[in-house]
Amino acid sequence: MMLLGALALTLQLSAVAPSLPPLPPLMVRAGDRLQSVPTLRHPDGGIGVRADALAQALGGQVVTQSAGSARFRLEVGTTGMDLEAGNALVVVGGDTIPLRAGVFRRGGQFYVPLALATELLPRLGAGVLFDQEKAELRRFSTVTAARRTPTTRARAETPRAPAPSTPAPPAPADNVRSAPANRSAALRQRVVVVDAGHGGPDNGMSGPIGVPKKVFEKNITLSFAKQLRAALEQREIQVVMTRTTDTLIALGDRGRMANQAKADLFLSVHVNAANPRWTNPGGARGFETYFLAEAKTEDERRVAAMENEAIRFETDADVTRDDPLGFIMRDMAQNEHLRESGRLAELLQAGMKQVHPGPSRGVKQAGFRVLVTAFMPAVLVEIGFGTNKLEAQYMTDIERQRELASTLADAVVRYLEQYERKVGGGG
């Protein structure tokens, strides 16, 4: 969570003594526009934020059941939260979530605890993030419509051969290149979620081994995720980013954000790290793609444990919740997604073979928490070993990122085309 930034704002707002003028407002930025949202001292301590002004600043609204009702609904984007004055609970999509303090009413206006704005809204994927340094709430759009400018299409199509007049037979897995010029209307409506692993206080992997100047997984994944977004947009596919800045998103919330966006695919990007007990950990190289299933090998369990360790940064997370394997056994719909996830993983892995300098470590399976809550084909891609000096240099090179992102985008297109043929009866 963004507790440090929220705490800094709370201290800033609380620094005013009771005898002094009212607390300074919460600042909300939407593009170039900066708005102030009134705040009050919470009756139980802390800070309360005026609900209707908060919703308005974020482009949403507050809906009340009746003039004197204590219940209301705060809507931001596609996220709706049902609240009640005097209650410290919020209902979102049928889920009841405890708040740090209760909702209260003052002067005929509803006030919500500060943490609802700075912590809960970002977690729900409502297109909101909290800037810790500036103590500023920011509104942004995580869904990016496909760009279709002549420049973009020319750049995407230049290296492609002209499309044949009749459909070509499906290409083998190792040939995942596809021509964006023939993108179908159905394919253009597909939504892909790109998840940059780690973020905020969770640096993830740090490397390379034996090199003083370190690189962090969270920075590599965010940079690469943006390149992948651009490559998918060139192919006229809509993209949702779970994060576009250096912020922490709970592992379980990332998949829920994809569900909320009604996404077709979920791709989580990560950087691998060598086991320090290996004979030559600094020499470990290669790329691998995972889908959600029971780990079969010790190395698969190692990678899952390493990536799942990010949950320690989620201070209010229940680490016993959402056990991956138990969840799969209870939900047969997810099992169908697992079969599709395996096929998607094969195509992604085959695509990376074409450009990645490291060895292919294959398609693997393990119990990743970030994949559990995504009810769609979902994979986790380890694009290289950050503990290896050469691969760290490769993954931080923007041109190499673009090249790798392009081949992954082609693999996504190939998967979606195959899926369209399957559901359309043509495959």
TrEMBL record:
Biased amino acid composition, Pro residues: 161-172
Reaction catalysis annotation: Hydrolyzes the link between N-acetylmuramoyl residues and L-amino acid residues in certain cell-wall glycopeptides
Alphabetized CDD domains for the sequence: MurNAc-LAA
Signal peptide residue numbers: 1-17
All residue ranges annotated as the MurNAc-LAA domain in the record: 255-413
Domain of life: Bacteria
Keywords: Hydrolase, Signal
EC number: 3.5.1.28
A Gene Ontology term for the protein's cellular component: outer membrane-bounded periplasmic space
Protein's UniProt name: N-acetylmuramoyl-L-alanine amidase
